[in-house]
Amino acid sequence: MSTCSSVHISLPHSLTAATWQPVQGYSEAQTVQSLVVYPRSIEDCQLILEQCRQYGYLICCRGGGYTYGDMILNSDQIILDTTQMSQVLQWDTEAGTITVQPGVTFASIFRKSLLCNWALSSCPGGMDVTIGGAVSNNVHGKDACKNGNFGDQVLHLKLLLSSGEVIEVDRAENAELFRAVIGGMGLLGIIVEVTLQLKKIPSPYVLVTSSHVRNIEESIEVLERSKENSDFSVAWVDAFAKDSRLGRGYVSTGKWLETDKKADVISLRNSLRKPNLLFGLLPAKPTWFIARPFFKPWGIRNVNRLHYQLAKYQISSKKKASIPQLFTDYNFMHNKIPELKHVYRPHGFYEFQPLIPRACGVETVKELFLLCQRHGSESLLCGMKVHKADDYLISYEGAGYSIGVDIQIGGRPKEQIVQFAKEIFAFTKNCGGKIFLAKDEMLDRDTFQNMYPHYKRFIELKRKYDLQGMFSSGMFRRLMST
Length: 482
Known about the structure:
Distance between the termini: 15 Å
Largest sheet: 8 strands, antiparallel
Number of strands: 23
Mean pLDDT: 93
Structural class: alpha+beta
Helix content: 25-40%
């Protein structure tokens, strides 16, 4: 293993200064030291590869840094940050195709596409997620039940191999490699260019409808029914409610609005601007600092109870039952809450996102919530979505329901968290489900290999295309390396 003191990498002047620095995933649960480099072009990447081959360093590719755990950590090695490779190379407003460098964000694309009534599908909840990261994690959004994961709109891409060669990857010429790169966690090479097919939409607005649900049975019933006449759906669940109220909450559905109303540059810019103030009044960082002692299960239990009652009243009184929204306001609503993760500091948080197969039925979903309650690990902020299957090699997919379970680390004994993780992983495995790797940092190797049986073929392709074994990460070493 290389150490900070033994680095000999000389970087081209075109790169931002590379420095050893502490690096965290989005959850801030662990910190490592890495040498972070910021290429601006394919040529920069090739020069970095040449130096790494010479001195035997391993590279971990990173986009916007919104992956939660050690998929974007590389202790005592190199992190190649692609955020400065952020150019839109081609945008065809007639065909709806766009070619971008990997550091281009969802926000950058929507600033252009919504003006012409084109939209990306399978958008995660963060507007600053990069396209390279979206491909590498094969992300999903509120339309997962209809449009699947992000890889389904990738037409082709360019991959820079550890040898320095750039190859074209698409479904027609090299379909198996394509299926490995999508969701491949950046382990096969550096994605340097991506071409996407956007979806034509009637307008940039979504008609959002909220439905109050009394328990998990009703929540799943509404989610399933919404597939017939909605383009988006997500459920908010009060994970603390018990007995007949278990899984209560509301389901938010959205449908592209048929209207001639266009989005303008100013409204889009405002929609994609992150606020500095909480509720337009309070500075975010000091507010979250003050809130930390209350952001614990006992505090959030009461907040959830209040939120449920308020939502129930608003929906029943038609005050917020059905409203039109600009898509970016609807999809990126969490970006309107500035610096939320600061409330978990200084210890960070863990999120577990199991996908429970539909065939297991509602009783299995209920058992998952009961498992969390037995451990005092109810999700502080719990969302549930419907998914469909795809055929990428390392992909979080399947006909079923994903449930986000996030818990704060502070105030919990490490042994308690480890035991909870073991049980939620075993539960998910036993019902034939999967854990979302983009939010994982605790899954064990045997369970991963059971959940993702195509990993063996993935490793074979990695050995073929990454001949130097140069691309790595903390997650790779934890789950797949020999």
